[in-house]
Amino acid sequence: MDTLRITGGQVLRPDGTTEEADVLVDRDEGTILDIAADIDADADETLDAEGCLVMPGLVNAHCHVSMTLLRGHADDKQLDAWLREDIWPTEAALTPEDVRVGAELGLVEMIKSGTTTFADMYFHVPDVVEAIDEAGLRARVGHGAVTIGKDDEDAWADIDESLAIAREFDGAVDGRIRTAVMPHSLTTVGEEYLREVTAEAHADDIPVHYHANETTNEVDPIVDERDERPLAYAQDLGMLTADDFLAHGVHVDDEEIELLADAGTGVVHCPASNMKLASGMAPVQQMLDAGVTVGLGTDGAASNNDLDMFDEMRDAAMLGKLASDDASAVAAPDVVQMATAGSADAIGLPGGALEVGGVADIAVVDLDAPHLTPANNLVSHLVYAARGSDVRHTVCDGQILMRDRDVLTLDESAVVDRARETAAALYERV
Ligand SMILES: N[C@@H](CCSC[C@H]1O[C@@H](n2cnc3c(=O)[nH]cnc32)[C@H](O)[C@@H]1O)C(=O)O
Ligand SMILES: [Zn+2]
Q1: Which residues are involved in binding Zn(2+) (predicted)?
Q2: DSSP string covering 322-345, please?
Q3: Structural domain tally of the chain?
């Protein structure tokens, strides 16, 4: 058996407590063999975690990873205009190779900020999968389909691609890749397409992931046209099962929260994107109180503008308090839970907790820094004071992706250079 030992750190347990312990990993299986003080078994490789917090790898439950190429391309605009005037026209010019380059950039950024697992909605998905294979992360991927503004033939082609991609790649890359069908949203995909793609996906045990209730512009037309709330409509369409998960859920009313809790459908909270696009404040504490599965996501780098889940945790806590008008709302332990186990649960992937027998998806955070001193409360520090750049080592599926800030699976400087050139050529074309 090939083993890895992470020694001398404070380990974050699933109940939110920390204890000094070593972590022993079976690298063949990619699982945790033991968590205990001073494990003296000989290991094939060791990672030093002295003065560090050893925590589950962060799970970014909603992303468009290749949008790193559009970082800073269009800012300070409302969602509708931003998508139609800036993002979609530029995305139309992206080649499969561009998407691959953007994905690599995003994956390096994720590894460097302790994210091991994510859910991704984009296009040219085979190229995204190749990048994930190389980088070593775990993901649920899918092709985002849009039908508005398209004739019936083009619309079905996009929907069919979403299904074909989901079927083809589920279980790829040693099982690190799972899939979902990803109709873009309840307003950008027509009713018959939503109904059909959902039924076909569920028949094959494939989940559905989509944007919902992000802005009032996404809620009002559905209420006006159908006299029902968007999530009641989603339920009618079969898109509200325990396997499905939606991004945003900003403008949800009490009944919709109850629908989500009853169905077990995951909601991915994206606070930075919601603030930047002025979409609104999601009632996160209310959803947690109702028993909704809530995860955390960055959304794409063009509406954030980074993929750092530490920033996202801080934003979630801050915005959650403001939304509830209550400083005790969306407390630090709940935010860490949201960014780890909550996200993993929402997107239906393993991880999000350090447990014997569980997957070895791990981030080691260096606490030896002025902004993390004194080490009063480590969970508080993760949410309010730590940054992605405090992550020292990243491990996914038992493999070391970053050791002492050195990314091992991708060539960081080559990836950054390629991204710079690719983005420059893209903007030249559009
Ligand atoms: N096949 C579709 C692309 C869908 S991929 C998913 C899309 O979601 C877009 N996106 C990124 N962030 C957001 C958001 O916050 N709300 C809605 N859409 C977003 C992203 O730019 C991308 O176009 C097409 O041909 O247009
Ligand atoms: Zn999104």
Answers
A1: 62, 64, 211, 299
A2: HHHT-TTSS-HHHHHHIIIIIHHH
A3: 2
